[in-house]
């Protein structure tokens, strides 16, 4: 496949993303309103404290649902932005003197896309730490039973000489295991419960804000493409053919 064919393929993919952009935003906004029922963090914390009750090890269904929706949306948006970045990179014309206004627009849009993508990638990375933090918080409850298993293996070898069968080597291996269970206090630490609920509420807000920010950024990207699509696709006019056989993507 030639560079020109790949450039055409990239343009088709970018235009497909842009044409479905409003529908994508509508779907995500609807999903967020359903999955994020609490308007403020205090309401979320109160609800989560009540939901934890005496079972601190059960998952938070609200945060779990939002976690899946938001992270899937972030991955989708990051992938789409990368497609748009490639589209612009493959539409940068060969370097020439003058008539570079369209190229300037391409450079500005490329920077916007890069900045937004990196923000989304950071949100994706930051939210991945939720379950590790939650597990650490649960481990600090002193009323939970703790079971540990210790396995020990011992080996020995020896050599005997003489005897009816002559010299011989002997070896043996023994494995033993021991399971220990420790029982904690019968009383659940109320402050630990609030701490766990606060952690859940913080992640609830982080996820909610991440998706709201992503929707806003995606809208800004769509708007900028709509306003500048002609210059982004044809920075030196539709009659220009100076992309070269390799389609230089040098930004200058």
TrEMBL record:
Pfam families to which the protein is assigned, alphabetical: PA28_C (PF02252)
GO MF annotations, alphabetized: endopeptidase activator activity
Residue ranges annotated for the Proteasome activator PA28 C-terminal domain, each copy included: 58-142
GO cellular component, one term: nucleoplasm
GO biological process terms, semicolon-separated: regulation of G1/S transition of mitotic cell cycle; regulation of proteasomal protein catabolic process
Disordered as annotated region, ranges: 147-186
Keywords, comma-separated and alphabetical: Proteasome
InterPro entries in alphabetical order: PA28_C, PA28_C_sf, Proteasome_activ_PA28, Proteasome_activ_sf
Listed Low complexity bias regions: 147-159, 168-185
Family to which this protein belongs: Belongs to the PA28 family.
Designated name of the protein: Proteasome activator complex subunit 2
Organism of derivation: Skeletonema marinoi
Taxonomy of the source species: Eukaryota, Sar, Stramenopiles, Ochrophyta, Bacillariophyta
């Amino acid at each position: 496949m030639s560079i020109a064919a790949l450039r055409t393929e990239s343009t088709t993919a970018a235009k497909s993303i842009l044409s479905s952009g409003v529908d994508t935003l509508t779907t995500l906004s609807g999903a967020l309103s359903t999955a994020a029922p609490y308007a403020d963090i205090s309401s979320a914390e109160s609800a989560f404290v009540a939901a934890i009750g005496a079972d601190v090890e059960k998952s938070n269904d609200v945060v779990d649902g939002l976690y899946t929706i938001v992270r899937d949306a972030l991955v989708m948006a990051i992938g789409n932005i990368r497609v748009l970045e490639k589209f612009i990179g493959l539409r940068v014309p060969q370097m020439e003197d003058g008539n570079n206004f369209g190229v300037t627009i391409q450079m500005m849009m490329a920077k916007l896309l890069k900045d937004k993508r990196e923000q989304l990638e950071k949100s994706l990375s930051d939210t991945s730490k939720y379950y590790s933090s939650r597990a650490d918080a649960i481990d600090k409850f002193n009323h939970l039973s703790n079971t540990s298993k210790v396995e020990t293996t011992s080996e020995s070898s020896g050599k005997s000489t003489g005897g009816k069968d002559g010299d011989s080597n002997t070896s043996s291996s023994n494995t033993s295991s021991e399971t220990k269970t420790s029982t904690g206090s019968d009383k659940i630490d109320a402050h630990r419960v609030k701490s766990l609920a606060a952690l859940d509420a913080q992640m609830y807000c982080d996820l909610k804000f991440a998706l709201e920010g992503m929707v806003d950024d995606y809208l800004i990207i769509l708007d900028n493409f709509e306003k500048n699509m002609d210059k982004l696709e044809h920075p030196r006019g539709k009659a220009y053919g100076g992309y070269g056989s390799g389609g230089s993507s040098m930004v200058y």
